[in-house]
Amino acid sequence: MVPSFLQAAKDHGWTIDTIGGLLEKKALVGLMDGNHGNLYPRSEEFADEGVPYISATNFLNNRVNYAKVKHLPEDRAAKLKKGIAKHGDVLFAHNATVGPVALLETILPRVILSTSVTYHRCNPDQLHNKFWLAYLESPFFQRQVERIMRQTTRSQVPITAQKELWATLPPLPEQRKIADILSTWDRAIETTEALLATARTQKRALMQTLLTGKRRFTEFIGQSWQSGGLELLAEIQMGQSPAGETYNSDGIGTPLINGPTEFTERSPVARQWTTKPTKICQAGDVLVCVRGSSTGRMNIADSEYCIGRGVAAVRKRDGLTDTVYLQQLLHSLVELVLSRAAGSTFPNIDKKSLNAIQVHIPPLDAQRKIGAVLGAADDEIDMHVDDIEKLRTEKKALMQQLLTGKRRVVADA
After folding, report:
1. Phi, psi dihedrals of residue 132, rounded to the nearest 5°
2. 29 or 221, which is more confident
3. Cβ contacts of residue 57 below 8 Å, gap of 6+?
4. Disulfide: which of 3, 275, 277, 300 matches 306 by Cβ 3.0-4.6 Å?
5. How confident is the model at residue 171, as a pLDDT?
6. What integer pLDDT is reported at residue 150 of this predicted model?
7. What is the 3 state secondary structure string of 47-92?
8. 356 Cβ partners below 8 Å, 6+ apart?
9. Rounded mean pLDDT of 233-258?
10. Which candidate, 312, 342, 289, 337, places its Cα nearest to that of 236?
């Protein structure tokens, strides 16, 4: 029975079939993974050069990130008979990391796939590979994948299961047109991601020079800076978890921050509350995870929260410290905070260790200027992040229309 999301495509006379059916129709002429069995390469057999050996972790923005790819010597690669992919194949991550796709682009006669990747080889007379890439990436195809995943305890979608997944093919000229339209969105996303990467690099450079005094604004040249422990700039309050029976998820009482589960890219999001708060942070405090694998992760408090024992609040000293400067300084010290953490299996950092971290302390007016410049750099980064998210949302909506036949395009003559 044809799935309901493909009904519009069926009404237009598009080909509706499973992947297995497309193999029988020769629209797909190859479906193979890198299940090498007893020939699976051992870690010591990989080399710096040779035949690329591609795994799902090498996918980046629908391409293969060759900078991260392992290699096998030619003689060792020659022993492998499965998962031999070539230029133009569409790659699907089916094991462990499930769902990502990539278009294989290479000038080499072959590359080898790991057990986590399947190649889908398109017959160019029936199936445009960039259309197929877009279809495998589409929300409705990925939902089929997710349904299979929910039916098993293993994180994989093997070839036998892939063959049962539904697909639709418009006429080849329309496939090309749809692929071209979606490629326009991909290029816009890539351009914006490049701008984001540049903005982040520029901010790191600013932090390295402004927060250490290597670069000073002309109006502050000649001012002396102090050096000392973080305690000279900030007050540190370690969290204390309230009694468990005071917790609720109904928004009653004070929002509670216990650690990374409430953290986002910038400020925390409340998920639980307590009717008997213990330690309270204030808006503008820097929240630092101080226990477990997330030690060193930071957020900025945007209101009052109760903080549990997995979190510390770092607060400016009034009249001595600018809030934004302190926030930027602490973000620059993440690696140093991690280096002070005790314990290898369960790292943690205490108040004494945080206070002892050595920092540069400019006068308050210079702090404000530095904070303003770095804050503006953050605003630019946030703008690019928002633009990327909007473009991805627009692309998904367009895929929903174009790839199911709900919205038709006029193919080039």
Report:
1. -65, -40
2. 29
3. 68, 97, 116
4. 277
5. 94
6. 87
7. ECCCEEEECHHHEECCEECHHHCEEECHHHHCCCCCCEECCCCEEE
8. 229, 230, 231, 340
9. 94
10. 312
